[in-house]
Amino acid sequence: MIDTVNNRKLFSFRSLVCAAAAFLLVSCASVSHYEKIDAAVLSGNYDRGLTLVKEAKGKGYRDKDAVVYYLDAGMISHFAGSYEKSSEYLQEAEKSIEAAFTKSISLEAATFLVNDTMREYPGEDYEDLYLNVFNALNYYHRENMEGAMVEVRRMDNKIRYLSTKYGTVLTKAQQDLLKKDSGIPYDKEAARVEFTNSALARYLGMLFYRAEGKRDDARIDRDQVRLAFANQPAMYDFPLPETLDEELSIPREKARLNVLGFSGRSPLKAEKVTRIPISGSNWIKISIPEFRERPSRVARTVVSLDSGENFELELIEKLGTVARETFKQRAAIIYVKTILRSLTKTTSSALLDEGASHADDPGAALLLGLLSLGTQVYAEASEQADLRMSRYFPDRAHVGGITVDPGVYTVTVTWYDSGNNLVQQTVYDGVEIKSNRLNLLEAVCMQ
Amino acid sequence: MPSSWAILIVGMEDYMKKNVMLIIIALTMVFIGACSSTPKVTRVDSDTQVDLSGYWNDTDVRIVCESLINDCLSSPRVAGFEQRTGELPVIIVGSFRNQSDEHIDTSIIQKRMETAILNSGKADFVASSDERLELRDERTEQQSWSSEETAKALANETGADFMLIGSVKTIIDSAGKTATRTYFVYAELIDIESNRKLWIGENSEIKKIIKRPAAKL
Questions:
Q1: Which CATH architecture has domain A2-445?
Q2: How does strand B90-99 pair with strand B162-175?
Q3: How far is B11 from chain A (nearest CA, A)?
Q4: Contact between chains at B97 and A146 (C-beta distance less than 8 A)
């Protein structure tokens, strides 16, 4: 009984010392810089957000976090309308992802001793693809269709790479149905849990190929939108946009206005900590990342023209869901590795503790006790979840289009919440909608 | 102090004393290494082949341009134009489209071809549409501000016979750590009046296999 009480006291004392030491150590790797950036982005002050991102370079964003830095800076620049800057950042992000493919042995070894944040952040497949989506838009906004097409081709190559990496994405049955130009059904043989295709990237490809007059390529991308929905039901658990087929049947004398809407902010990784007491006064700290939603107020989006026509945007991609599903596939490996690492750290502390309790010499016992405490402090402080990911991709992408007479229009994009209350309204004056070209508007509501 | 601890500490002291110079040298080397902040620059011949990322680079430009220029200059149809008309063909540079999957500055290919063909003495070039605007502005200015003897006449431009256009395309195949990149570069000389093609050159010699190492130190 007395032993138990003493153990509890010792456990409490050690916990206090460890917590204090861990606080001092952990505070060195703070993520507090995100608070101000998040606030600036949410309020639509993107220039301020970008300034804060730049200021955090070398501090909040370490050298190992180059991919995250360039993605964050690239996305915020895009929303700020600094398309040239955004392109530069996103291209740097792409280069950093390529460079991080080659793993550093020393940094990988450090992940087994310290934590997963010791390695270079290599970027996720979806981040690698979405950066081309936004870069294509950057080039489009700069009226550089050739540059936009380069990005579209890069997306296409990456999706092909993903499909070879994870296996077949099109069954013969689906191929036969595609020839008849009908809808693509779910086929369990082709269904993937991995991210192998993006309806958003394919949709954008379809629009750009259509603008280039490459109707076959546009048709292939339209079919790929259907396949993305059919073969990745976990990521596309909502209906295919109804206006998809309209995109490739525009009368010659008419013009098509397309609107791409982005809403909300993608979910974040947050740290979940569990402490499991083991022998004596030692415990295992398991710190793993888990996804936390950043709820959006937006429930529907209406586009209206001053000519009286209006239409609702339809959901085409839940970028947040893609991020979460991608993470789910790696989560098991992260959990096992974290437990093994934590167990190794704590076992050494427990062994030293054991040695201290059996040492005859008081000096040796004290030394071993201090070493045990130090090891536990190190385990407590060093076990940190790897929370790195790009934070400023939107949560959802919506698409829509309308065929109208060529002319100059005022276009209003209105975002409503579930109670039909106005969340945000953006008016685009003097939008010139021409036939035989891409007339694409991009609207963003981060709320 | 127990004897084992004493032996250990004494042993460490001995080791430190014996190897003190070695430790100082090692620390100095590390310090000097960490302090060298200037980049190392090595000048190399412009013909030196340096492939770093596997993307389009100066070596590719050189190989492609050499092949296309030689092909164009040795074309019997291009040579035949002068024999038929008694005048050198006049060429204007049109668009060189980047239809690849990487951001390539195709104006370098354009300019190199223009330079080589012009310097060969087998064709004349007139200013491209972008250059023309600047020249026209200058001529208009001259009408007001230059002396009558030196001001150049308006509407006296040489009309081109042919337009040089081209494109760069890529085919990529990748699986695992290996990717292949093949570049297809096309150049064409098109008769502006008849739309007939005088010459087409193609270069598909650039094929790269890029293997990304899985690990580094």
A1: Alpha Horseshoe (1.25)
A2: parallel
A3: 18
A4: yes
- What residues of chain B lie within 8 A of the CB of A165, using their CB? 175-176
Q: Is A157 on the interface with B (CB under 8 A)?
A: yes
A84 contacts on B by Cβ (under 8 Å): none
User: Which chain B residue shows the shortest CA-CA distance from A164?
Assistant: B175
Dihedral pair phi/psi, residue A238, rounded to 5° = -150, 165
DSSP A61: B
Of the partner residues B5, B212, B217, the one whose CB lies closest to the CB of residue A104: B217
| pLDDT tens, residue by residue, A285-338 | 889 999 899 989 999 999 999 999 999 999 999 999 999 888 887 888 888 889
Q: CB-CB: which of A102, A106, A146 is closest to B98?
A: A146
DSSP per-residue string spanning chain B:
--HHHHHHHHHHHHHHHHTHHHHHHHHHHHHHHHH--SPP-----TT----SSSS--HHHHHHHHHHHHHHHHT-HHHHHHHHHHSSPPEEEEEEEEEESSS---THHHHHHHHHHHHHTTS-EEE--HHHHHHHHHHHHHHHHHS-TTTPPPSS-PPPPSEEEEEEEEEEEEEETTEEEEEEEEEEEEEETTT--EEEEEEE---EEEEE--SEE-
Domain boundaries, chain A: 2-445
What's the DSSP call for residue A383? Answer: -
With CA atoms as reference, the chain A residue closest to B168 would be A150
A362 touches chain B (CB under 8 A): no
CB A376 within 8 A of CB A348: no
- Comparing C-alpha atoms, which of A162, A172, A252, A148 is closest to residue A198? A162
| Residue of chain A whose Cα is closest to the Cα of B170 | A153
* CA nearest to B75, candidates B200, B205, B166: B200
A146 close contact with B: CB closer than 8 A: yes
| Residue range A182-219, pLDDT digits in tens | 566 566 666 666 788 899 999 999 999 999 999 999 99
